Records
---
Amino acid sequence: MPKPKTYFIFTFGCQMNKSDSERVAGDYQSRGYREAKTVDQADEIVINTCSIRKSAEDRARSLINNLAKKFKQMADKPKIILTGCMIHHGEEKLLTMLPFVDEILPISEVGFNSAAIRRDTIHAWIPISAGCNSFCTYCIVPLSRGREISRPLKDILAEVKDLVKRGYSEITLVGQNVNSYGLEKVGIGLRKLLLRQNLKLPSNVSQYKQAKGKPPFVQLLDKICENKAIKKLRFMSSNPWDFSDELIDCILRHPQIDRFIHLPVQSGSNRTLSRMNRGYTWQDYLNIVNKLRQKIPNVTLGTDIIVGFPGETDRDFQATVKLAKKVGWQVAFVARYSPRPGTAAWRLYKDDVSAVVKKQRWQILENLINQPHLIHRPKVIK
Ligand code: SF4
């Protein structure tokens, strides 16, 4: 019998990428491949990339260059396949930039329903949607992953049932914007519109249908929580413009849903939020936080913040500091803005905040939110 072919996967970036890699592995195994113990033993190497910052792309490039050196002298070189967010550069450009790459794989070709190969035996990631219809100006996701597609409810529930049968009791639902699950409405035309120079950006909120009755994401959570073998249910990422009252009530009625909510704010300045095309104000954000705190007393919160976004003045930054003091996030992923080619911010704005100032602002928020023992942190929200 011939020896089965082997694969090896490198994964960069967020949980969505980790979940995608589990499905890429499942796709390989369904075709008779086996996972190689080391990269040297692999017939095919998949590099699942992240484009959130330039440094993330640089790490993938450097890995590919190292692999190129490593396998240069080999007669029977492994095939190198690139997938993930870097494919927004386009196949032609990538193959020129990285000549050692043999193939570009859009992650959508793997699909939701390839069986995931999971390492964890208790906790599982389940993708419920892919792509994004929100056009936050700094973000490459709408270009790299395309329009938002929600996975059918029955397929998600079937996967939950199967996981429970196999002994899993913790689930995290993943998607770029989980709480817009089932509400997408735009087609491919918008992507073309976005790419046209100087075009006014579509507002992110306008790209979703208004939920009539119970929002589809709430229906999904209710259905999953009927299965009492699920002891812990989490979801990420949520966005403020779809964080409905129904969702808050749903969290309240299901003790299985984790009380830690990750709700990205990105900035506490309305001017910056508008330039980011985030579709809410800091007051809207605080309103959600207050509702969560009033209804769910043991709720804790995390967030994402970008400092040094183009045009961010000291005053804008101080608005973020002020909001941080009001909200009291337990944790924040604070990123220093770096322009991503292809995004609206890259086209429309100058990266005019110096690296030194970005670092200072980053440090202030790190100390305030992530190192609270270093300074006083108020708890009262007004
Ligand atoms: S919601 Fe905004 S930040 Fe999140 S993936 Fe979509 S465009 Fe990017």
---
Amino acid sequence: MDDNALAFLQRLLEAPSPSGYERPVQDVVRDYVRRFADDVRTDLHGNVIAARNPGAPLRLMLAGHCDQIGLVVQHIDAEGFCYVQPIGGWDTQVLLGQRLTVWNAGGAVPGIMARKPIHLLSEEEKKQVPKFKDLWLDIGARNKEEADQMVRIGDPVTLELAYRRMAGDFACSPAMDDKCGLWVVVEALRRTAGKQLRCGLFAVSTVQEEIGLRGARTSAYSIDPQVGIAVDVTHATDCPTIDKKQEGDVRLGGGPVIYRGPNMNPAVVDLLMATADEAEIAYQVAASGKATGTDANTMQISRAGMATGLVSIPNRYMHSPVEMISLTDIDRAADLLAAFALRLEEGTDFTP
Ligand SMILES: [Zn+2]
């Protein structure tokens, strides 16, 4: 992977983007794609759509969601402690004791997610999973007046954003879900540059996936593509306590995961696999018997229907501060999607 591309991934991971507050990460995307996209636009929902060859009759949409789970400040009490609502699906147990950042109009305010110490918990409290009402955000303010100078109701909150390289080609960060998938779709667009592209290729940084797959719906409507592939993370099952019989066999470093099942168009699946085989790109296969919880769900039933695929990046510890992926997996996924796009032309038929 080249240094510029790796630096782009790091910038994505270090830009805050709770659902509905994606502008900082979209600025990073806009700045990067203008070097190789023929057209870049942002719609009223906040999706950034970067295209090459946009006038071609066959249109392919690649979707990676840029939003991350977060929190929003909803109340500040007299002592200056903040209470928050979740944005997206949190395990409160991984939030406890975390360093957080409140993003106000002027920048970043450090905070921590607290509850009373173990010594003071009752036996009953020790057994219970804490609820959001039992936790508070401490920003170090001495009272409400001081807190009001620092944060406002409605300010978004993220985990402390920090990218960390691990042994080998593994890397860890909050919000690998789905900034690594976003990286893949943008990088796939870049990797078609200078090659003969016969379809219109639209790489979309979709918003608000974590609260109901919402940006994929609005962007798919305006692009009106015949074919679409969502790139998101999926659970790696190569760590303790996860049952492969229930969740499938997915390894970090085993390559991108091509999904099969009713949410996926069989001709798209076949072409993804044939493309990977020809390009000698290692991949894994997983199945889902229902509409997936990804952008592929809304894309497939957009307008009169879209031939949809789902390519997933193996991810350990999803929705935690330490989401782990393999950099080789995302590199291969970008190669796969670029090669897929280069095979499409007017008349390519995906009717099942
Ligand atoms: Zn996701």
